[in-house]
Amino acid sequence: MELTFAAATDVGRQRNHNEDNFLIDKKLRLFLVADGMGGHAAGEVASSIAVHEVRDTIFNNRELLDRYRVDHPGVQSYEILQVLESAVQTACSAVHSRAQAEQDKRGMGTTVTVMLIAGAGEHLRGFVAHVGDSRCYLARQNQCHVLTEDHSLMNELVRRGKLNREQIESSPYKQYKNAVTRAVGVYSSVEVDTFDFDILPGDRFLLCSDGMYAYIDEDELPKQLAEGEVKDVPKKLVDRANAGGGHDNITAVVIRVGATSSAEHAPRQTEVSLKLDVLKGMQMFRYLSYKELVRIGTIAEMIELEPDQVVFTQGQPGDSMYVVVSGSVKLAKGDKTVAVLGKGQHFGEMSLVDRSVRSLTATANEPTRLVVITRKDFYDIIKREPASAVKMLWSFVQVLGQRLRKTTSDLSDALHGDKRGVETEEENLSQD
Questions:
Q1: Nearest to residue 35, comparing CAs of 18, 12, 52?
Q2: Are 6 and 254 within 8 A, CB to CB?
Q3: Alpha-carbon distance 88 to 308, whole Å?
Q4: 213-246, pLDDT tens digit by residue?
C-alpha cells in the first residue's frame, strides 16, 4: 500500500508569528504536528524542540521498527507504543529543562500529535501518541472520525456534561477556549495518550493544529482529503482556514494510503471491516464511538474453524469471549444441545470478568469464523481507556440484567408448572 503525504503551515490572519511546527520523515514513516504556546519565541522554541526530540528518539529505535516491518515474531505492538511514549516524554523533559534554564521561556509548552506507520505490505498499523488539543483525523469509506481526544478545558466541560458543544461560543468559559489541560514541557513529565489500529487501503489522515480544525467541515473532509494531488491538499485546507478568519496559526499534514483493487489485499481489508461491523452490532459495545471501536478492534483476533472443531470444552478454564462472524457454533452440556449461535451472536463473555471454568462445550457446526477477545487484552483496554471502560461495563451490566430477568422468569414458570402439576395430581387422586 503506497503512502503519499504533504504538509503546509501558515501564520494565519491574526497572529504575527508562527508557533506551529510539523515533521514528515519519509524513511521512518513518521508524521508530527506541534502547536507551541508561551508567547513570542517561547512557543516556537517549545514546538521546535519537541519535533526534533521525538524524531531523534524514534530514529534511535529504528532497529525495532525495522524488525516490526518484516513481521518479526518477537516484536509486539505495545513495544512500538512504548517507543512513542518515551519519545514524547523525552521531548517533555527537554522543553521543561530549557524553560527552567531561560527566564523568558518559563511556562512554555506545546501540543504534540504523532503518527507512526509501521508494518509492511497489507499489514500496516498506525501508532499514535498524543498530548494537547491538536488532532488526528481518519477519513474512511466517506466517513470522518477524530481519533484523538482534545486535552482542553472546553472538551473536559463537554465530557463532564457541564455544557454541550453548541453552547461554547455563548458560554462564560469562552475566554478559555484555547486553554489546554495537558501540554508537553509545562512540567517535567506528562500523561500521553497512545493507541494503535489497523490501516486499510484508501484510508486518509489529517494531523492538524487547532487553527486548522476550527474551520473543518467533517462532512466535507473525506472528499477534500481524496481530491486532486496530495501535494495540493494541505495548502487548500490552509487557504480555507484563512478564508474563514485564520484566528490562529494553521498547520495541516495529510497522509494517503493507496487504494487498491488487488485481490491479495482484499482478505485483509474484509477482515478488518468485518471485525468492526461485528463489534459495532454487539450490545456490549453499542455505546462506543467509532474511534473506540477501532481500539477494541486492535485487540480482537479473527480465527477460522473447521466443521466439528472444538472451541472450548466444559470444565476448561475460560479466558476469552467469542463472536460469530460467519458459520455457526453449537453450545452443549454433555450430550444435550443448549443453543446454536449464528452470525453476530457471542458467547463466553463471562470469561472477561470471571475466572470460573466453562459451563458448556462450544463446537463449530460448519466452516466458521470467530472474533476472539482475551481477558488480558480486555483488562488492558479498561486500564488505558477509562471512558470506554465505563460504557462497556455499563452495557455488560445491562446484558447481565436481561439474563437475570429471563432466568427469574424461567424459574417462575417452572415453579408454577410444578405447582399446577401437583394440583392436577391431587384432583385426580380425589376423583379416584
A1: 18
A2: yes
A3: 50
A4: 999 999 999 999 999 999 999 999 999 999 999 9
Q: Is residue 318 part of a domain?
A: no
The Cβ of residue 350 has, within 10 Å, a number of other Cβ atoms equal to 16
Number of domains making up the chain: 1
325 part of a folded domain: no
Q: d(Cα 260, Cα 311) in Å, to the nearest integer?
A: 35
Would you say residue 16 lies in a domain? Answer: yes
Nearest by Cα to 194 from 131, 254, 241: 131
CATH at 147:
3.60.40.10
pTM: 0.79
Full domain range(s) for residue 114: 3-257
Residues 6 or more apart from 6 whose CB is under 8 A from it?
A: 230, 231, 232, 233, 234, 253, 254
Contacts of 294 (CB under 8 A, 6+ apart): 138, 145, 147, 197, 198, 276
Radius of gyration over every alpha carbon of the chain, rounded to an integer in angstroms? 27
Return the DSSP state at 358.
Answer: P
Distance of alpha carbon 11 from alpha carbon 20, whole angstroms: 8
State the Cα torsion 401-295-305-341 to the nearest 10°: 20
In the numeric block, the cell 399446577 is attached to 420
Is residue 364, in this structure, part of any structural domain at all? no
The string of pLDDT tens digits covering residues 133-142 is 999 999 998 8
Residues linked to residue 138 through DSSP beta bridges, in sequence order = 145, 205
The continuous run of DSSP H or E covering 424 comes out as helix 386-431
Asked whether the CA dihedral 131, 135, 140, 145 is positive or negative, the reply is positive
Angle among Cα 424, 429, 431 to the nearest 5 degrees reads 95
